[in-house]
Fold:
Amino acid sequence: MTEFIPVSSTGHLILATELFGYDAKQWAAFNVVIQLGAILAVVVQYWRTFWAVGWGLLRLEPISVRFVRNIFVAFLPSAVLGLLLKDYIDILLGSPMVVGWALILGGIAILGIEKIAKPGPKTGIGELPLRQVVGVGLAQCLSMFPGVSRSGATIMGALAMGIERRTAAEFSFFLAVPTMLGASTLELLDSGVAMAGGVGWREIAIGFVVSFVVALAVIRAFVAFVSRSGFAPFAWYRIVAGAAAIAWLSLR
Structure:
């Protein structure tokens, strides 16, 4: 449910691991693989776009070339920083308290950006200028801190750059495919696919299917919701959830 909305799926996984008393290392590969189910949901939801862009690339159509260029350019900053800072990021991923504070600060940031941002006219991803694309890519780097939210960082970055809400959300979905594929591949290569402590392929298969089905439903509902109501409800949820997490962790 949290993969594509701006509330931090990684942060929720970290807090859920604490809440249920799971061993984070034993469930690391599980958490990575279920993200692939969410990626598949993007591909299924937007298969016509992927198909059209693929054919357009074969024909060297300018709009398709610019679409792929924009996704690649936005993906590049987080790919480079992710490789350079992986060890530091892994340390932060083990800190639930960081997640609580990041949820609160991120919620405040969303409220601020929603208030001051002036979105431009609706446009296609392939029509976005490089200035805006680079801005979104740099914003995505903030999501390396657990609790910030990859979708939240990219969508708010897009709004701050003057991109219309629906386009900002869809840009975030498409950008998730190379970003999450890269992060998942890196994690699996680093930790291996071997499961421990009873976390086997049955659990992974169930998690993958559930992630795919729920993410597909969320994607369809999310775009329609933010087009009407904006992002403030997610900001308030973040603030409440972050405060609750900090209070709970402090009293343990």
